[in-house]
């Protein structure tokens, strides 16, 4: 209205918040409105009904000046196709777990710890279900499900793979004759606390600061809902980065280790892939597509899930399933036999079973050879100390202490073992003869 004016029509009408006018976006003149209203009552004109009306803004608009949309559009056919693939992968993972449990006594599965293989598949299935959680319009409930499926699935899958590789790392670095064997039960005792920490963290997060859906804008200024990100997300992301770094270090330590069916190397590739994919997708989200729309974000989530989860299943389980289908599931890897891979380098400590007598015989022969080498080295050192403490003894030609003799290497080679024993006996005879003369 005009200040200090009480004349008729000295005012202006505006549309309420959430409504707009096409012809008069800045408001309606009061004088013209009264004339149009009078004509409308006298049925002279419909100008009032056609012009002096306010239209509701598009859905999601708090205020507007026209019919332009405020919410980002969702390409539902495209999203449904990606969701169908993800659900199919999750169902296939569950069926694979059932197949693995049914054939758990086949050697190719037995030596790879069936319990950890099953845990890995469960984690993969949970990660696939994240695509179900982020499919609809997000709200508080779906955001909670999103956080749990994403982080819990990653923790279960990654930890189960890392525990098996860590076992190989421990046994591979042992330098003693005693072989370290970590059973599945011992590894589970290490794995349970890690999963428990994740459960406590997610539970505390859900109860104390429940994730919610907030509106964000894409590059076109259109709004859509996305789950909130705060210091809970950032703290967990930092922890997962350190966890990935530890896994990469463990894999690097076992890069030269030999394992049955080459599983340690395949699991290392899977862990490397998980680390690279997650870090790369985080960079894409933050720096390349920071204002991506809902469909692009859903596509990026699908790509991340397929590159990390599906690739992990292909690397870890593909060769095993292939051997079973070829009828070679109960046959040992020929490379493992040639290289004498023992139980220490199996991913569950089982190794070659007792009925594999050639491998056990070869292992016993190697141990006997090492013992013989140690015995000859001890004998050699005893003779050396005897010469040092008895300076009056003169070395015999061709004996241990002849400068031109090469018998110093006798205890360390098979070809000179017999000559070493002969020289030792001759030295003892000389010593005994000298002692009797003295």
Automatic annotation (TrEMBL):
<keyword id="KW-0175">Coiled coil</keyword>
<keyword id="KW-0325">Glycoprotein</keyword>
<keyword id="KW-0675">Receptor</keyword>
<feature type="region of interest" description="Disordered">
    <location>
        <begin position="412"/>
        <end position="438"/>
    </location>
</feature>
<feature type="transmembrane region" description="Helical">
    <location>
        <begin position="108"/>
        <end position="128"/>
    </location>
</feature>
<dbReference type="GO" id="GO:0005886">
    <property type="term" value="C:plasma membrane"/>
</dbReference>
<dbReference type="InterPro" id="IPR017978">
    <property type="entry name" value="GPCR_3_C"/>
</dbReference>
<keyword id="KW-0812">Transmembrane</keyword>
<comment type="similarity">
    <text>Belongs to the G-protein coupled receptor 3 family.</text>
</comment>
<keyword id="KW-0297">G-protein coupled receptor</keyword>
<dbReference type="InterPro" id="IPR043458">
    <property type="entry name" value="GPR158/179"/>
</dbReference>
<feature type="domain" description="G-protein coupled receptors family 3 profile">
    <location>
        <begin position="78"/>
        <end position="321"/>
    </location>
</feature>
<keyword id="KW-1133">Transmembrane helix</keyword>
<feature type="transmembrane region" description="Helical">
    <location>
        <begin position="80"/>
        <end position="101"/>
    </location>
</feature>
<dbReference type="InterPro" id="IPR009030">
    <property type="entry name" value="Growth_fac_rcpt_cys_sf"/>
</dbReference>
<feature type="compositionally biased region" description="Low complexity">
    <location>
        <begin position="413"/>
        <end position="425"/>
    </location>
</feature>
<feature type="coiled-coil region">
    <location>
        <begin position="357"/>
        <end position="384"/>
    </location>
</feature>
<dbReference type="Pfam" id="PF00003">
    <property type="entry name" value="7tm_3"/>
</dbReference>
<keyword id="KW-0472">Membrane</keyword>
<feature type="transmembrane region" description="Helical">
    <location>
        <begin position="236"/>
        <end position="254"/>
    </location>
</feature>
<protein>
    <submittedName>
        <fullName>Probable G-protein coupled receptor CG31760</fullName>
    </submittedName>
</protein>
<keyword id="KW-0807">Transducer</keyword>
<feature type="transmembrane region" description="Helical">
    <location>
        <begin position="148"/>
        <end position="166"/>
    </location>
</feature>
<feature type="transmembrane region" description="Helical">
    <location>
        <begin position="187"/>
        <end position="207"/>
    </location>
</feature>
<keyword id="KW-1003">Cell membrane</keyword>
<dbReference type="GO" id="GO:0004930">
    <property type="term" value="F:G protein-coupled receptor activity"/>
</dbReference>
<feature type="transmembrane region" description="Helical">
    <location>
        <begin position="266"/>
        <end position="289"/>
    </location>
</feature>
């Amino acid at each position: 209205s005009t200040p200090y004016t009480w004349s008729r029509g000295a005012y202006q009408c505006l549309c309420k918040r959430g409504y707009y006018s096409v012809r008069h976006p800045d408001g309606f003149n009061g004088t013209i409105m009264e004339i149009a209203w009078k004509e409308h009552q006298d049925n002279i004109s419909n100008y009032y009904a056609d012009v002096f009306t306010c239209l509701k803004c598009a859905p999601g608009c708090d205020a507007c000046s026209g019919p332009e949309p405020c919410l980002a559009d969702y390409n539902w056919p495209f999203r449904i196709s990606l969701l169908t693939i993800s659900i199919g992968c999750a169902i296939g993972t569950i069926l694979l777990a059932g197949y693995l449990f049914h054939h758990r006594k086949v050697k190719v599965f037995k030596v790879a710890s069936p319990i950890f293989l099953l845990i890995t598949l469960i984690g993969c299935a949970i990660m696939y279900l994240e695509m179900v959680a982020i499919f609809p319009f997000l709200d508080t409930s779906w955001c909670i499900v999103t956080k749990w499926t994403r982080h819990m699935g990653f923790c279960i899958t990654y930890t189960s793979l890392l525990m098996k590789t860590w076992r190989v790392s421990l046994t591979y670095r042992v330098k003693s004759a005693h072989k370290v064997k970590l059973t599945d039960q011992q590894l589970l005792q290490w794995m349970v606390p890690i999963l428990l920490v994740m459960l406590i963290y997610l539970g505390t997060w859900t109860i104390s600061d429940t994730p919610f859906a907030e509106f964000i804008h894409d590059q076109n200024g259109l709004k859509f809902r996305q789950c909130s990100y705060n210091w809970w997300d950032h703290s967990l992301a930092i922890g997962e980065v350190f966890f990935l770094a530890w896994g990469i270090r463990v894999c690097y330590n076992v890069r030269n280790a030999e394992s049955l069916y080459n599983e340690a190397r395949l699991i290392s590739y899977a862990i490397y892939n998980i680390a690279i994919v997650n870090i790369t997708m985080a960079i894409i989200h933050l720096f390349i597509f920071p204002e991506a729309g809902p469909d692009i974000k859903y596509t990026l989530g699908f790509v991340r899930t397929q590159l990390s989860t599906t690739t992990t299943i292909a690397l870890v389980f593909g060769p095993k399933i292939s051997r079973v289908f070829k009828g070679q599931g109960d046959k040992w890897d020929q490379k493992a036999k040639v290289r004498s891979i023992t139980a220490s380098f199996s991913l569950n400590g089982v190794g070659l079973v007792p009925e594999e007598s050639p491998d056990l015989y070869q292992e016993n022969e190697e141990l006997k050879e090492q013992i013989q080498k140690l015995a000859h080295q001890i004998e050699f050192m005893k003779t050396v100390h005897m010469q040092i403490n008895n300076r009056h003894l003169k070395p015999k030609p061709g004996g241990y202490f002849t400068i031109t003799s090469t018998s110093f290497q006798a205890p360390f080679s098979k070809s000179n073992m017999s000559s070493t024993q002969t020289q030792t006996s001759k030295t003892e005879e000389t010593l005994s003869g000298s002692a009797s003369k003295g």
